[in-house]
Amino acid sequence: MIRIASTILTLLALLVPAGNAAAASRERMSTVAQRDLVNLTVYNAGTALVHDRRRVYLDAGANRVAWRDVSAQMDPTSALLDSLGPMGAVSVTEQNFDFDLFNPGALLDKYIGRDVIVVHDPRFAGERETRETARVLSTSGGIVLQYRNRIETELRGHIAFPVSSSNFRDRPTLVLEMQSGRAGAHTLDLSYLTSGLSWRADYVGLLSSDERRLSLTGLITLSNTSGVSYDNARLQLVAGNVNIIQPQALRTIANVTARAAGGLVPDTFRQENYFEYHLYTLNHPTTVLDKQTKQISLLSAQDVPVRKTLELRGSQDYYRTEDADLGDRLPVGVYVTFQNRGGDLGIPLPAGIVRLYQNDSRNLSQFLGSDQIDHTPRNESVRLHLGNSFDVTARKRQTDFEGHDCWADSSYEIVVSNAKDIAQDVLVVESIPGTWQIIAENLAHAKASSSTATWTIHVPADSHATLTYKAHSSWC
User: Fold this and answer.
1) Could you report the per-residue pLDDT of 406-432, keeping only the tens digit for each?
2) With contact defined as beta carbons under 8 Å apart, do 230 and 215 qualify?
3) What is the Cβ-side half-sphere exposure of residue 3, based on CA atoms within 13 angstroms?
4) d(Cα 299, Cα 205) in Å, to the nearest integer?
5) pLDDT value at residue 173
6) Does an H or E element contain 158, and which?
7) Which of 318, 311, 328, 334 has the alpha carbon at shortest distance from 415?
8) Which helix (H) or strand (E) holds 118?
9) Per-residue pLDDT reduced to its tens digit, 127-184
């Protein structure tokens, strides 16, 4: 195993050539200690816009500033530096993103083909430490060193590097070459896009015992794997399908005036319409650490009216072909639907996962199922597929079929069984291709859409009910 002693850094500091030291002295370091504020605007697509505002002292004329603690996953082509002073007071002439961080592996790679000093361990070299010059030939799968009279692949000691590379940084750094019209402190705002920051909405609902009401809580789940922490950040979230190659859709004004919306948890987020999206602004600063997932309350809604349905859904395919047996013990889906309006709702709901629970006879909550919802505007419905019914199943068969190239007449029998001790209503939803009509049926259907026929079957307790119908469809 290659061991590189901690004395490397000390040797590097002592052995940096005078020319490099002079260049380093001309470079001014900007750290988070000079930060006035940081604003994070996080988008659904895993992209974030960072506004990092700092007070930086500049000389009149040319300046070189190493802006440390930027995101390791930043897009340097998106970086924009604004001076909050007079127009044209500061201008950027060049910028370089240094992300080749100072670590033993990267350091060895930099010295392939160059000479280093190998410090042999006394345990292998005798009673005293010895030093020898060697050239690094390769670091692939291990180290290969060429000495004056031999080549070795095992390192019995550590390496001292005689020359430091100015390209190394101990953390991701954006190096800015800029011109300043005056000497003194300047307030500079660096904005850039980065990956590694993402958010989603998570909803938890408690269904009432009569299955007619729902208590809903919304949480924002924020994850940071960008390689840097953001202390006391102003956090904003954009809900909507943002096309990330449109720069104008990604510029966000940090100082916004938002109006409160019903249903949002007090003192957490404010919501406002923003372009074709919705913007949620956290009312207080928060620290977002690297490699951290945090949750923040978004909304709380009580006594939301819900409708539970049992549904058997068919397919267009079997209306075109002859297939007698379409399935025994077909699953009947369980759906819960509510309207995003009234009461504590009626706010734009960001896309996310909804998980529903219900208390059992001992008042312990039990998991009912979950579903993914898309961005849902106010006054729209939310429909959740929680799973399939255990006690309600169906058997379906084709009883007759006559068809040609452009049309078909097909007859069906659907038997719905109910093992529960209470009666159940089951909605049969059939998607029929082409131009269609129901030419015979034992229960009346409803035309739910241009391609959908639905029947409501009332199934008594511990019994079954049968639906028969004949459909004519043409598609030429």
Assistant:
1) 899 999 999 999 999 999 999 999 999
2) no
3) 7
4) 12
5) 85
6) strand 157-160
7) 328
8) strand 115-120
9) 677 888 889 888 887 889 899 889 888 887 888 876 655 556 667 888 889 899 889 9
Helix and strand numbers (H, E) in the chain are 4, 31
Amino acid found at 448: A
Candidates 39, 345, 78, 355; CA nearest to 207 is: 355
Domains of the chain (ranges, CATH numbers) = 7-30+47-101+168-195 (no CATH), 112-160 (no CATH), 308-335+384-474 (2.60.40.1180)
Handedness of CA 259, 260, 266, 270 (dihedral sign): negative
pTM of the full structure = 0.69
Q: Is the pLDDT of residue 84 over 80?
A: yes
> How far, in Å, CA of 132 to CA of 114, rounded?
14
Distance CA 59, CA 149 (A): 53
Handedness of CA 11, 14, 95, 290 (dihedral sign): positive
DSSP letter at 265?
A: P
The total of other beta-carbon atoms located within 10 Å of residue 196's CB is: 19
Residue 265's pLDDT is 59
pLDDT band at 1 (very low <50, low <70, confident <90, very high): very low
Query: In terms of pLDDT, which residue wins out, 241 or 324?
Result: 324
